[in-house]
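User: For a reading group we're discussing how well predicted structures match intuition. Take Peptide ABC transporter permease. Before you show the prediction, I'll give you the sequence so everyone sees exactly what went in.
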Amino acid sequence: MTSATLRHSVWILRGNPLTAVAAAGVMLFVLLAIFGPWIVPYDPVVSNVSEALLPPSAAHLAGTDQLGRDVFSRLVIAARLDLTIAVSAVGISFVIGAVVGAFCGYTGGKLDRAVGRFVDVMMAFPLFVLAMAMVAALGNRIENIVIATAIINLPFYIRFARAEVNVRRNVGWVEAARACGESHFSVVLRFLLPNILPAMAVQISLNLGWAILNAAGLSFIGLGVKPPTPEWGIMVAEGARFISTGRWWLVAFPGLALMMAVLCFNLLGDGMRDILDPRMRT
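Assistant: Thanks. Here is the predicted 3D structure of Peptide ABC transporter permease, as structure tokens, for the group to look at:
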């Protein structure tokens, strides 16, 4: 990042406190994901039945679960897994979807129509149900969750890139690039894709939050990550059985972590658009 871009980013964040708070929240989750194993006070998978279902206290900031495991430690370690799934899935779907959509929008013709119909068919299905079917068929392993989440995110990027490139493919600077001898492949990758990235930044941020929610939802219904691996969806599912007994912390803390992660990524979208959009630079 250049110094000018850094100054522009700071200016945007100072002018939009909500975006600054969301960025701080995302950074906090990233730091927890990176340094979590070194800052947690207890092993997140070791049971201690003698301390089961203890309420929040100085010894256990978020209480303990039915097996005596520290809830706070499990929350922190779960951030790494959930963010890894989300970033991997969105990264795969963004790269493939943006390239495929950009070439379809640039070339048009039969390929464009065929891809467009394929995307329409995919979006006709409830996407979470489609993810459930794929994970159930492939097996509930982490890599299969990533693949399923990436596939159901593909239509968003294909449609978005296709539409954005379609309205830019005949503008003056694209014609100038072709006149200078640039190949069609080079025009798409070097000129059109970087130009539509600011417009796609909002979609990327929204999809990151949705991917976290999707992974947690699959785990909640038993199709995601397998216990005893710490994961927010699993923690909510396990804690739901104890709501009626007053053990509120088993659901409240993982649910709050999940809500805050999704909210921060959603709020960060507008800020990313303003930071990356060259038209906002004055």
